[in-house]
Amino acid sequence: MLVLFETPAGFALFKVLDEGKLDKVEDLWKEFTTSDSARKVVELKAFNKFENTSDALSAATLIIDSKPTKGLRKFLQKHCEGETLAVADSKLGNAIKEKLKIDCLHNSAVMELMRGLRNQLTELISGLGAQDLGPMSLGLSHSLSRYKLKFSPEKVDTMIIQAIGLLDDLDKELNTYAMRVREWYGWHFPELTKIVADNIQYAKVVKMMGDRTNAESLDFSEILSDDEVEAQLKEAAVISMGTEVSELDLLNIRELCDQVLALSEYRAQLFDYLRSRMNTIAPNLTALVGELVGARLIAHGGSLVNLAKQPGSTIQILGAEKALFRALKTKHATPKYGLIYHASLIGQAAPKHKGKISRSLAAKTALAIRYDALGDGEDNSIGLESRVKLETRLRVLEGKELGRSAGSTKGKPKIEVYEKDRKKGAGALITPAKTYNPAADLVLGQSTEETPKKPEGASKKRKHQEAEPAGAEETIQEDGDQEGQKKKKKKKSKDSEDSPVADADGGKKKKKKSKESEEPPVATAEGEKKEKKKKKKSDSQDAKDVAMETEASGKKDKKQKKKKHGDE
Asked: Where do Basic residues bias regions lie (predicted)?
């Protein structure tokens, strides 16, 4: 039996001298503790050396993919006739068996044997030292890892990060320079600021015109597309209220205009470069949100791979971290969008639908980023399909017609009125119509006539009860002063004043009496007892009050008498 062993220097074939030791897998490692014992188990039969590092890299990559190289196939055909080959990879063994018709073996004993060979490799292969094996394995591993990552200079997203950063800086500088030109030249021709709104056109006009007196003799048709604007410019130049400017000042203003125009040209060139880079590196992301928004997302995430690790909810609010943490701290509503707000799909949505569209767009953007970063394809099919779906969802939210794709809207079903009392398919009613029943009416005249009879007895009893405490009050008042009698008269007068008011509300009292008449007699008896108790308590309190007042009046009289005696 032969053993195929891969090394950084080449392929080695070992002959197994004692196959019986492979049966004892647990004790096989002991045979490779020393080089002498290892030579008794295996022996080097042949060695196929790699010519250079590229040959080694190609062979290693094919072995990882379980595919034998041409050199390996020739090497095995030459030395493995009629032999069983032990391999470390079962898939590689199947490929060798199919192409070369060589029986291959892969089990735990073979893996233990490979472990022993790796331990005594430098001793078993003459001419391969440890000082040479280390650098070779390190160089091969670096080359292999670079190949596995499929490193390509076309896929470097660092250029996108630098380009979008420079583009933003150029926009700021252009705006600053253009405003400086307007402010500087505005002293000479202030009316031009309102006539020409575009900064680039303004700089071109200033560079061509110079002094405002030259406006009448110049043709601005190449710069200004509208003839009316050109006419307004020439009219304003004649009647302008600006100050006079020297030639040296105009020269410096024109140089600043040259800077503005040069920066604008470079910005356009940089934008074209950024567009081409984005279409190469992230085509699906570009199809969904555009070049500028996609580049800003990549720059904010750090790289395309880092952005691919983020969920859709993070991509949705990427760029609004300050607002998010402020909302969490103050317990207010969190933001619905960040950098993704500048995408064209969110700009098309109504304000009430922007949150829903931004959430859907962030989810689709996360899928597109992952496909661009980790997928093998280089087309933008996923991005275009996702954009079409989002556009249809936007139309659904806005209530627009979707056409045949969502079904025809011609044959709408008629809404029938639901009538539970009508039979299906018939005009007759299930239940007959209800008629008016006069016997169910209540006559109020009878109840009002009977009600005044019952409270007469109760009113007599009340008058009799009121008469008794009245006599007691009179006996107490005879012993007192005239002040107590006056107060009682005032109380009686108040009661007499309240009585006509109560009589005015006759209807209410009648209703109350009718209710009392409808109550059972037991309830009226209990009510009379309670009223008697309340009246007794009120009478006793009135008597106490009168007694207190009499005592107080007697004390006052004594004091007055004492004062009179003292004065005398």
From this structure: 556-568
Is 253 in contact with 203 (CB distance < 8 Å)? no
CATH topology of domain 156-269: Helix Hairpins (1.10.287)
Gap between the Cα atoms of 157 and 302, Å rounded? 9
Question: For residues 291 and 387, what is the distance between their CA atoms, to the nearest angstrom?
Answer: 15
Q: Where are the domains of the chain?
A: 2-149, 156-269, 282-397
Token pair 């004091």 is found at 559
pLDDT of 368: 94
Nearest to 484 by CA among 537, 561, 547, 558: 547
Strand order in the sheet with 42-49: 42-49, 10-16, 2-6, 85-86, 104-105
> Cα separation of 11 and 81, whole Å?
17
Residue 197 DSSP label: -
Segment 185-217, tens digit of pLDDT:
999 999 999 999 999 999 999 999 988 888 888
Q: Among residues 34, 212, 190, which one has the least CA distance to residue 116?
A: 34
**Assigned architecture for domain 2-149:** 2-Layer Sandwich (3.30)
Q: Cβ-count burial of 355 within 10 angstroms (0-12 exposed, 13-18 middle, 19+ buried)?
A: middle
Structural contact between residues 386 and 285, judged by C-beta atoms closer than 8 angstroms: no
User: Tokens at residue 506, please?
Assistant: 């006759």
Q: Report the percent of the chain where pLDDT is more than 70.
A: 72
- What is the pTM for the complete model shown? 0.49
DSSP, collapsed to helix, strand or coil, labels residue 30 as helix
- Among candidates 145, 149, 203, 151, which has minimal Cα distance to 177? 203
**CATH class of the domain defined by 282-397:** mainly alpha
Helix (H, G, I), strand (E, B) or coil at 429: strand
As a whole number of angstroms, the distance between CA 366 and CA 282 comes to 12
Same fold flag, 2-149 and 282-397: no
Which pLDDT score is estimated for 184? 93
Q: How far apart are CA 5 and CA 14, in angstroms?
A: 8
DSSP state of 395: H
* pLDDT band at 316; cut points 50, 70, 90: very high
R_g (Cα) of the chain, nearest Å: 54
Do the beta carbons of residue 182 and residue 279 sit within 8 Å? no
Q: At what angle do helices 521-567 and 454-479 cross, to 10 degrees?
A: 20
Question: Nearest Cα to 321, choosing from 344, 304, 307, 301?
Answer: 301
Hey, what amino acid is at 470?
A
What average pLDDT does the structure give for the chain? 78
List the structure tokens of 533.
């108790």
Q: Which long-range contacts (CB under 8 A, 24 or more apart) does 304-307 make?
A: 304/157, 304/369, 304/372, 304/373, 305/373, 305/374, 307/369, 307/373
**Phi–psi pair at 30, nearest 5 degrees:** -65, -25
DSSP bridge pairs for 104 = 85
